[in-house]
Amino acid sequence: MISVWHFLSVAAVLFALGLIGFLTRRNLITMFLSAELMIQGVVLNLLAFARFHANLSGQAFGLFVIAVAACEAGLAMALIIAMYRRTKSLDSSVWQNLRETGVPATIDPDALIQPPLELADDPKLPAAGKKPQEVAGV
Amino acid sequence: MNFILGSLLLTVLFAPLLAAACLAILRPAKAGTARTIAVWTSAFHVLLTVALFVLYSGHVNQDNSLSLGFQPKVVPGDPGSMSDSDVITYKTNWTLLSLSPDGVSAPTVQFFVGLDGLNLLLIGLTSLMFFFAVLVSWGTITERAAPFYAWLFVLQSCVNGAFASFDIILFYVFFELTLIPSFFLIGQWGTGGARRDAAKKFVLYTLLGSLLTLIGIIGIVLTNPIPVHPTTNKPFYFEPTPRAMTTVENEGNTYVNGKTGPITFSIPILMKNVSMWDSMEYYSVGHAENRLARATPAGRATAESELATAQQNLAQRRSMQFWIFLALMAGFAVKIPIVPFHTWLPSAYGEAPIAVTMIFSAILAKLGTFGIIRIVIPLLPEMCVLYGLPLFGTLGAIGIVYAAFCAYAQRDLKMLAAYSSVSHLGFLVIGLFSLSREGLSGAALHMVNHGLTAGALFALLAFLSRRYRTLDATQYSGMWAKYPRFSFYFLIIALASVGLPGLCNFVSEMLMLAGLFDPRNVVIFGRGLAIVAAVGVFLASWYTFTMIRRVLFGPVVEPPALNDGAAITGDVHAREVIPLMAMSALCIGIGLFPQPLLDVLQTDTRRLAGIVDRARYRLDPQAIPIPEPAPERPVRRGPVENALREEAPFQPGGVPNVVIPPQPKNPLPSNPK
Amino acid sequence: MSSTALALTVLATLLASTILTPLLAQLRLSRYAHFPAILGFAIASVLSLFMLRDVFLLGPAGTTPGLSLDLSGTYPFFDLNLKESPTVWFHAGLLKVTFSLAIDPLSAIMLATVTFVATWIAVFSSGYMHGEDGYTRFFTIMCLFVFCMCLLVLADNFFLLLAGWEGVGLCSYLLVGYYYAKPSAAAAARKAFLVTRLGDVGFVLGIFLLWSAGGYHTDLSAIFAHIQQHSASHGTLTAACLLLFCGAVGKSAQLPLYVWLPDAMEGPTPVSALIHAATMVTAGVYLLARCAPLFVQVPYVQIYICATGGLTAIFAAFIALTQTDLKRILAYSTVSQLGYMFMALGTVGAITPSIAVAAAIFHLFTHAFFKALLFLGSGSVMHAMGGVIDIRKFSGLRKLMPVTHITFLIGCAALAGLPLLSGFWSKDQILDSLHHAGEHSLHYRVLYEGVFLVALLTAGLTAFYTFRAYFLTFWGEERIPEEAGHHAHESPRVMRVPLIVLAVGAVIVGLAVESFTRHGFSKFLATTPAIQMANKTYEREHNVRSQSSPHFNWKVAGMGTTAALLGLAAAFALYRRGEMVAVPAILKPAHGLSLNKGYVDEIFQGIIVKPAEIAATGTRQFDGLLDSLARFVAFIPRLFAAFLRPLQNGLVQFYALGMVLGLAVFAFFIVFKVSR
Lengths: 138, 673, 676
Known about the structure:
The complex is a heterotrimer of chains A (138), B (673) and C (676). With 138 residues, chain A is mostly helical. Helices cover 60% and strands 0% of the residues of chain A. Chain A contains four helices and no strands. In chain A, 14% of the residues are buried. The mean pLDDT of chain A is 84. By secondary structure, chain B is mostly helical. Chain B is built from 23 helices and four strands. Chain B is globular, with a radius of gyration of 26 Å. Helix content of chain C is 71%, strand content 3%. Chain C has 25 helices and four strands. Chain C has a two-stranded antiparallel ribbon. A two-stranded antiparallel ribbon of chain C has the order 3-4. Chain C is globular, with a radius of gyration of 31 Å. Chain A binds chain C through residues 19, 22-23, 26, 31, 92-93, 95-100, 102-103, 105-106, and chain C through 645-646, 648-653, 656-657, 660.
């Protein structure tokens, strides 16, 4: 019998994966995907509890979240593309201008290598499990 | 009648806000249009204030009751004046915010504004000074004039609100609100390069002080709830003096101490509560001593522990009040400012446009001294007696001399005027803490007089700065030959500010000195500080007349002429003459006929002095040297009669509603507790 | 009219003149600005003579009636009516200040003197100041001055007296600084105002001490009566009297605060004559005379006053010996003569107070005539010499200016105290008082005898420097400075007449009021209530009957006259050729000391003015330090912030990590603490 615990476990796993992804990956698109993953984990929770309590409020709420997530995805992708066009990079650490004045910029000692220019018109995700350098063929 | 006066008061308080809103909404692009609106509205406001004075004059001298709380004569929303009988009940029905759903006993912040002797003159002064400030700013504010005047009017409303408030929270809100317009007025329209920094420094410094004041206010409110009857829960104001207890016994009743009831924010009620709790703690010790003296060997242990508890309670209350006193004074000391909390002042006064500086020294500084006379003295009378002169009186005296020396060494005339203002305010603080009728009357009058002279001094400097855009004293000489009319006004104002007889400051300074000679003050802090204050008057003439010699006398030397079209040339213009002539005339008028103003003040100063006299008695029942009264007055003894000794002729008959505390060690008939 | 009404009319007339004069300027009638002044002074003078007669015949007046203005009523909002008690100036608590006047012989004599001298000086000024810039200003301030002086003299209330006192000080300031474009005049004006105000600090404190010791009265008569009845503590009374004396020292230019008076000669000469010789500077003497009932109770303050007077008299005379500025010589002579008056006042209590006070006031009275005369004479000389006043630059003017010469000679003779002139009688009374005090004082005989000798010596010096100035100016061959040009002639009639009037006064007043009337002046003055009160106290404390009038002592008069004649002879021997003489080497140091005015100005500069300026600069520096302290306090939060700022590094993922960690703590708390 699949109990509510099973659902919750899956949701927790999803959330944890999303969280880890969000914290560790610097590619803006990947970060966004990770965030989506977290949201889905939470939605799964809602659905599971809706089923558990046998009412529909959780379901309704889940639908709302999905709708909002869709809007958010559109917005976020637009923003990411706009940002990419400015810096030709998907690296989130490029955007650290909002730090306190006087605090030195954080520089990655193992810096990313800029992809070749012909790739740079539109953002592209690297193939899973490969470093951007390898994608760029460097 | 009361209704009309109440409405007029509200109009006077908030008409400037309306003018500000008009200016902000219309946003006239031309500076001239904004100025015209500002001049006419503020002139109209002066007329309104005059009407208020005329209508109020019927209330002067009519209040002879000796209530322990202030009794504002004109209160909008007074339930009494709304009814057919049209009586004054000294309270309001207008609640702003109720802190608990239970409407009956809830502490409520009320929109409790009113007029009494203490604030009437200051509201008048405010109205006049803002009108003059608008005139003084004539040639100097050319950019974004509309918002400038709008902020100025907002400031006026806030100041008026603070002066008129009788709710402690309302007072604090208005007191703090003045910071916002001040911040913009300094920061945006300042004349110096460091105006932003000056504005920031001013706001942060004052805010730090006034947040401590807020803590003090909370402390006052929490430690002085309304005393209620233990069984009926009705307000219960009964001081357990031995004589009162005897009466209770004789009528076959038993006495029980009141218990703490709901808290209140109304200053008049708080004043009553303070007297009530102070004397309750005090007499508890006396009664416990008496019980111990009459205790049987068996009951001795209980009586001893009761005495210990009573003594501990009293000591606790006083130590608590001491910290509250310090916290309350923090904000006011910064606002006045008392040396050494004045360091925001040079930069703020120096950077602000001169019209704003004029308002600062004439009006805003008075918020601090007004806070002392409205809140600190009536709500912490015992602490004022114990620490007022020794602590803040000494600081004031140091400030007089210190600021006078600083003023002498200044080369910038504006700075000189700023420091001279600090020096005079030190005198004012000493006068306030002399805590006698003469001193309090003198200090209350000096608030007005200092406002006039300090304001006028800045108006005079505006005259120079409008012509030469500099106030460096070393660049000026021989202005008498160049501008004889200007020099005439300059001399009058300077003479008024050094306290020459026949001009306004003389009267108030003499009254404050008389207050310091009150024999009930400790000699070193009474007469000692009086000596410093008198020397301060000399120092004032020292730096003032040195400055006059440098600027007015000698061969004509003037700063390089300006080539911008805005500069004005020639002697005093028609527009400039209005403030100068009006302020000079007022200085002379108040100097020659100060009595009407003192009559306005007398009810409240008498009340304050009475409260303080009771506190003096509680602190030291034996050692009050009672001044020998003038022989033409009826001689009556005892601290409260002492407070009333002057008023015997005005007494309408009947018993004053304060209880006369006799010696607490008198044996009591029995233990009612 | 009653004497009180007369006094009030005098004040009203003078006030009206003060207001009228500037109005003339508004009407472009500046040329006639002297009319209201002269007319007002003349009317006041006549009225005060009437008042003097009333007081003489009817005795002192009672309480002053007043006006009450009731503002508290309903329509028409005020109500003005006459009432018995005086008008209140201000009243709060126990401090009640009223417009009460003292109409008694003392004030009547003072009033008559002031208005009479002022009238003739105003007449003189209308010629002397003719064509000056600020003609209107001059007469306006003169009117204000005479008003304030009369207020001072008539006031029976300490604060009213203080008002007059400060008022005359203000007028003195404005008139000394009359030539405002002249830096030396500006400096002198400031100095005069500040130095007298330094004395006033003490005066004000003294008033308050008396107020609190004297039953919270402010009326002088009431305070005296209260202290008489209740005998205030000795310490308080001593302090109060010393403080009052402090005020008098400032105003009447005694050691050490006399330094302003010589500099005050920067003002126009009529001002020097009226304010700095005849009237204002005697205010301190008047104050002490009026407060005799207090001073009689504190003999050790009295000896201090006497010694101050003596020291001032001889020191100022010593400085006057070598000065070359005619007006300055007269100024030092004024200081010296004021010292004489204080010497006399210092014997109140040692001898019958009424006699001591009469001696001082009598000298004040005669001095007003002959010193005003001398100043006007020097003004006349200055007018003719084109503003030059240095006696080395001119000589032999007696042919050129006969009237000035004769009147000046009379003034000099009166000042020197040559027999039968007014100065002789009054100086003799002072010497007699001192002599008497030396014989009869209870504790301080030696001191009084010493002061008597000082006074004698001063009398000799006075005759010497006075006649030195006279010989140098009017004798010898005729020399006229270049600045005079063709102006060097006798002054116009409007200036000559006052000289003649005052000269006649200087000759006869002594004989007329004191000698021929058998001490009528002293007896009349002794009927002043305050002085009567002092007499009573004296009788009670010394257990003797007070003398009714001074007696003429041939021995003392002879000694005084001898001293004066010796001084005169010395001056004649040295200066009859109208030229300066070389100083013998043995006297060089003394001469230098005198010429440099005893270096007192330099000493003051060194020990008071400079240190105060240094202190001011130091305070200003310290204020900067205090500001840095405040800034440092404001800096402390930033110091803490320095540790936290790196956390704000702008990396999104770093912030997210923070959020996660916070969430983790929160979740941990919920799971492991709350749920248990």
